[in-house]
Specification:
Outer membrane lipoprotein wza fold like, 5-stranded mixed beta sheet, alpha+beta, 287 residues, 3 domains, 18 strands, 36% strand, wza like fold
Length: 287
């Protein structure tokens, strides 16, 4: 068969709408920038051969990691980068059909390496894992944590036997303390669940500058002094030495606590931890 002479130029493309992943300190992005993504099942690929319109095609990778390509039939592509697939097609086409073909491969959709992000994030859904991705990068790509995020992030990872292993990450360790052990590598097929916290009321009344209902997260219940500070603090006539906290248990029983806030402020007593539906009353001093 007569081969057609075409200069060899191999160009690597990554689709413009592939997910951009923000830079995270300590994590390198060479895999993404260098076209290190490896093709897998369900990815959508565009292949173009310069001067050979009949060979230009857009094809989706099968579950077996193969594509069907004109003249070549089935070609195994799973595990190859875009540049490696270009070289393979150049080799196969050069063997019997074309002389020095110019082939370009562009990955249009990244479907094989996804992670599901659910719960208290700005954008729930699937995130494409392009290169090496950490938990912090995936959460950032999902728009970050919402205000009602709970104390834990649970990463469900499927095991070879079909069971799911939950990996529990403390939000404060990851987001505030920057613990590198918490910033785990996310694997294809993982499900990242950011716990959604519950908003609960605490009732503040009496000699407080802004009395009313204080809405707080159940996982982050405030202490008495924190709740008072969040509602504007004491008035000048507040009786700080006898603050009453009323609490009702699950059986409906009522219990009252008398708290001397001046002793807490001076470091003599520990702060009093409030609970859901507590009622705080600050009376007026008359002298």
């Amino acid at each position: 068969m007569r081969k057609i002479a075409i200069p060899v130029i191999v160009t690597i493309y990554l689709c413009a709408f592939a997910l951009s992943v923000p830079s995270v300190p300590g994590q390198e992005g060479q895999e993404v920038l260098g076209g290190g993504y490896r093709i897998g099942a369900r990815d959508l690929i565009e292949i173009r051969v310069f001067g050979q319109e009949k060979l230009n095609t857009t094809v989706r990778v099968t579950e077996q990691g193969k594509i069907t390509y004109p003249m070549l039939g089935e070609v195994s592509v799973e595990g190859l980068t875009a540049s490696e697939l270009e070289r393979r097609l150049v080799q196969l086409l050069s063997k019997d059909y074309l002389l020095n073909p110019e082939v370009s491969v562009r990955i249009l959709e990244f479907q094989s390496k996804q992670v599901s992000v659910l719960g208290a994030v700005a954008k729930q859904g699937f995130i494409e894992l392009i290169g090496r991705q950490t938990l912090l990068r995936v959460i950032t790509a999902a728009g970050g944590l919402m205000r009602d995020a709970g104390k834990e992030i649970i990463v469900f990872r499927q095991q070879p036997d079909g069971t799911s292993l939950p990996l529990r990450i403390v939000v404060d360790d990851l987001m505030q303390r920057g613990d590198p052990k918490s910033n785990i590598i996310i694997e294809p097929g993982d499900t990242v669940m950011v716990q959604v916290d519950k908003s609960v009321p605490i009732y503040i009344s009496g000699e407080i500058r802004n009395p009313g209902v204080l809405q707080v997260l159940k996982s982050r219940l405030p202490t008495l002094t924190q709740a008072i500070a969040q509602t504007g603090g004491f008035t000048d006539q507040a009786r700080k030495g006898k603050v009453i906290v009323t609490r009702r248990d699950d059986r409906g029983n009522i219990k009252k606590f008398e708290i001397d806030v001046t002793r807490i402020q001076s470091g003599k007593d520990k702060d009093f931890l409030l609970e859901e539906n507590d009622a705080v009353f600050v009376s007026k001093t008359w002298f």
